[in-house]
Amino acid sequence: MSRELNIQGLGVSEGIKLGKAFVYSPVRLEDVKDRKTDAPDMEAGLLHTAKTQCLADLDALVARANDILGEEKAVILKGQVSMLNDPSFFPPMEQLIHKEKWTAETAVRMVTLQTASIFESMPSEYIRERAADVRDVGSRLLSYVRGRQGSQLSDIQEEVIIVADDLSPSDTVQLDKRYVLGFVTRIGGKTSHTAILANSLGIAAILGAGNGIEQIKDGDMLAIDGAAGVCIVNPDTKTIEDTREKMRLQEESRQQLLAYADKAAVTADGFKVEIAANIGTPDEALGLLGTGAEAVGLYRTEFLFMSRSSMPDEETQFQAYKSAAKAMQGCPVIIRTLDIGGDKELPYLELPHELNPFLGYRAIRLCLDRPNLLVTQLRAILRASAYGNLKVMFPMISGLEEWRKAKGIFEEVREQLRLEGIPMAEKIEVGIMIEIPSAALQADRFAKEVDFFSIGTNDLVQYTLAVDRMNEKVSYLYDYFHPAVIRLIKQVIDASDRYGKWTGMCGSMAGDPLAAPLLMGLGLHEWSMSPSAIQKIKRQIINLNRSECKELAERILDMDTPAEVRAALEAYQT
């Protein structure tokens, strides 16, 4: 047996698995050689036939995605259908065949790679990763030009861990969870469609593992940890035994955690908090109550905008928000208005290129500058409020002027709908995200006017500490246990308490069990997190004593460094 090899990647979907490697090598555009043809009409006919087969293939995959993942994520594949029909994609291939006398294979390669390179040159990480979708549809088209069927992933009939240079969204949709234990890819990031789909399917996934995967051969034994991002190739006997023990403990823990789904999040001394979930699509709200979620603390509406080639109209948005409201059966659903910009761009909005987009034209700033965006979304939300308990939250608020202007538009839209006789809820809470230090520092002023706060720790940490968490050179400084961040959180919660309002948290800190005693001691009212973290946090809260947590929080507020804070929390856990 080969020597044990440890490969590190980016863990994007939890799970510890042990299984044989299935090395997946699809058609590679880069392997196509440039060739001319003496029969351009025949090559053009071959290309058209391939397009017809490819569209039929994609239609079947869209139907499968609808069944497995829901309509929102099937839009990813519908986008590939649009790409095939795009006048800037397929017709140039025909022109290369007729005018330049290139073969169909060469034409597909040239246009696909050129189009992908345009996406890859964009400053936004999200847009850059859409290049994978372009390559995906080009590779599929090429496979039919060559007279071959598409991916064989759907034919897997035994338990395997897939190893690939990359897995496209259409590849991922074909994965059968009965047989595919997980996958490891050379490239990929947390914002890629593949990562999103992997989480939806619940398949353990490690992306961006680098060139080390080239040493993996078909049939090699793999041990993967999807949370830690570790892949061990040909593990020795002890590693196999350890992995099996971890799998057993993981399953045991999962079974034990299920008991907490129906329990209220009440501390040992009787203090109750609300546990909510972060979602990105209405489909994610289906079945959410069964996980133990009591609300949706953050509905990220940008996915509805990012998964299409044009702006969703009022009716499209209304149906999405209505679906989420009905799925939660009267439990609260906080809908965040469009939070686009930074690393999330919409090509059809034609946003200007910025040197520092995270500090620029984004979120509420964009929507106040282009009020039609906000008016359309608020109309859809207010209409959907007739079907459930919806709340509205404005992101990226930095000052009272922005809040008052946004709230004013909300009131105008509500009055207009009332005049039109359109049903909606009588009372809808309206709040803001606290993710900019200036808003946290003025929390006492905001608390007089808003209905609630929701602390977005991901951005609050970034802006408070001036740290780009995607920059590996400084990411070590990114820490929500920094005393400055903790003091801002305390200031916001105190302000809401003073004026009879409430504060929630929808950043990743809310789903961290280590942070739970601190947040309890600071007085956080609502905790919103990934659904997979809900039962862990409930178990933690039920075992806490709030009065003790208050004492712990007071001690932590007097500490000087993140290391001291972590040490205190780790000691408290033990």
UniProtKB/TrEMBL annotation:
Catalytic reaction list: L-histidyl-[protein] + phosphoenolpyruvate = N(pros)-phospho-L-histidyl-[protein] + pyruvate
Listed EC numbers: 2.7.3.9
MF (Gene Ontology): phosphoenolpyruvate-protein phosphotransferase activity
Superkingdom, taxonomy of origin: Bacteria
Stored InterPro entries: PEP-util_enz_mobile_dom, PEP-utilizing_PTS_enzyme, PEP_util_C, PEP_util_CS, Phosphohistidine_dom_sf, PTS_EI, PTS_EI-like, PTS_EIN
Domain PEP-utilising enzyme mobile, residue spans: 156-229
Entry-linked Pfam families: PEP-utilisers_N (PF05524), PEP-utilizers (PF00391), PEP-utilizers_C (PF02896)
Enzyme class, first EC level, given as a word: transferase
Principal place of residence: cytoplasm
Cofactor(s) the protein requires to work: Mg(2+)
Keywords, sorted A to Z: Cytoplasm, Kinase, Magnesium, Metal-binding, Phosphotransferase system, Sugar transport, Transferase, Transport
Keyword RNA-binding attributed: no
PANTHER family, A to Z: PHOSPHOENOLPYRUVATE-PROTEIN PHOSPHOTRANSFERASE
Role of this protein: General (non sugar-specific) component of the phosphoenolpyruvate-dependent sugar phosphotransferase system (sugar PTS). This major carbohydrate active-transport system catalyzes the phosphorylation of incoming sugar substrates concomitantly with their translocation across the cell membrane. Enzyme I transfers the phosphoryl group from phosphoenolpyruvate (PEP) to the phosphoryl carrier protein (HPr).
Protein name: Phosphoenolpyruvate-protein phosphotransferase
Originating species: Paenibacillus harenae
